[in-house]
Amino acid sequence: MATLLREVRALHTGTRPWCAGAVLLAGRGPAIAVEEASGWAVRYARYDEAAGGPVELSAEDRVPMHANTPFDLASLTKLFTAVAVVQQLERGTLELDAPVSAYLPDFTAAAEHGLTVRQLLTHTSGLRPELPLYDLPGAAARLSALRHEAPVHAPGTTHVYSDLNMLLLQQLLERRTGRGLDKLVYEGITRPLGMTATGFGPCPGAAATEDQRRPWAKVDRGMIRGEVHDENAWALGGVAGHAGLFSTARDLAVICRTLLAGGAYGTARILGPDYAELMLTAPGLGFNVDQPWFMGELAGRGAAGHTGFTGTSLVLDPATDTFLVLLANTVHPRRRAADSKPRARAATWLARAVV
């Protein structure tokens, strides 16, 4: 594990660090084996486009990273949306292979092309990766765009990772239950599990993300800290099926442990064992399974996990009852080409440690 800790400390050093700071947590069974915070939750004042680099804060103005620093989870939010959907499957409120039109008849494109709940959960609906809702004027126009968005591939024929899948599932959940997604996540997941540091923003004290300005970003918002980074989630008010949650490594360890233990944590149960297993079994419901590009050597034996654009990730390995949470602010102060090699290296070191 000493090598794993050195890897974490190296993430924020050098002339082109991977991130401003990071928190890594690894565990096996009910035990946390490694918990390490390194670097800075807030390191930069802004991005200097003319100079082509970040502007550092003074030493006294920087905010150090701590083990309990909250992060913008970005697409890790999708996992919570997926759990909320599977809870409704277990209760019989939804059916996995039912057409979306059975629950959202006014979503005409989904009805016309026969999209199903399973296709949305497994990213096989054929919908394109994203839709620029942030450019549309108001909630009514954004909802109309979702209703009329047709797939670009034949549903069920190919895997295309898409935020739109989770936005449709959010609409489906809210229509079916009469409650907002934030309430469903709180009442069905975070409250029973005691995940008091997890919730939709704003989240004061979170690690900073991006100096969000055009041309590299899609909107002009300046340096973001404590508000959702994703432009569509921001335009939708901060609560979205694909992004918007904030959490800590310790809280994410709880959801990892819950799913590895068949849906239960302590005296709380949020899913039955069969449904928890269904989420983690290939191709996964909401989860990716056996993806070496970010799972390293944990892939290939049924490991499941997910990444987030802001630099977040988690991996669960049912074969060894281990889990890895790596939270980093890689888009601080500006987004760049994705690089998951550090995630894969951390997962590989964990795989070798448990062997």
What's a quick, concise take on this entry?
By secondary structure, this protein is α+β, with helices and mostly antiparallel strands.
Structure description:
- The protein is an alpha+beta fold and 355 residues long.
- It has a domain at 2-73 and 244-354.
- The protein has twelve helices and 16 strands.
- It has helices at residues 2-10, 77-91, 108-113, 117-121, 139-148, 163-177, 181-193, 231-235, 249-260, 273-280, 292-295, 341-354, and strands spanning 21-28, 31-42, 44-48, 53-56, 63-64, 71-72, 199-200, 211-212, 222-223, 245-247, 264-265, 268-269, 288-289, 304-307, 312-317, 322-328.
- α1 runs antiparallel to α12 and α2 crosses α7 (181-193).
- The longest helix has 15 residues, at 77-91.
- It is globular and about 55 Å long.
- The two termini are 12 Å apart.
- The mean pLDDT is 95.
Total DSSP helices? 12
- What is the average per-residue confidence, as pLDDT, rounded to a whole number? 95
Regions with pLDDT < 50 over 5+ consecutive residues? none
User: Which value, in Å, is the CA radius of gyration?
Assistant: 20 Å
Structure summary, number of beta strands: 16
Please indicate the percent range of residues in DSSP E strands (runs of 2 or more): 15-25%
Strand order of the largest sheet: 5-2-1-16-15-14-13
Structural class: alpha+beta
Largest sheet: 7 strands, antiparallel
Query: What percentage of residues falls in helices of 4 or more residues?
Result: 25-40%
First CA to last CA: what distance? Answer: 12 Å
Encode the helix/strand succession as letters. HEEEEEEHHHHHHEEEHEHEEHEHEEEH
Net shape: globular
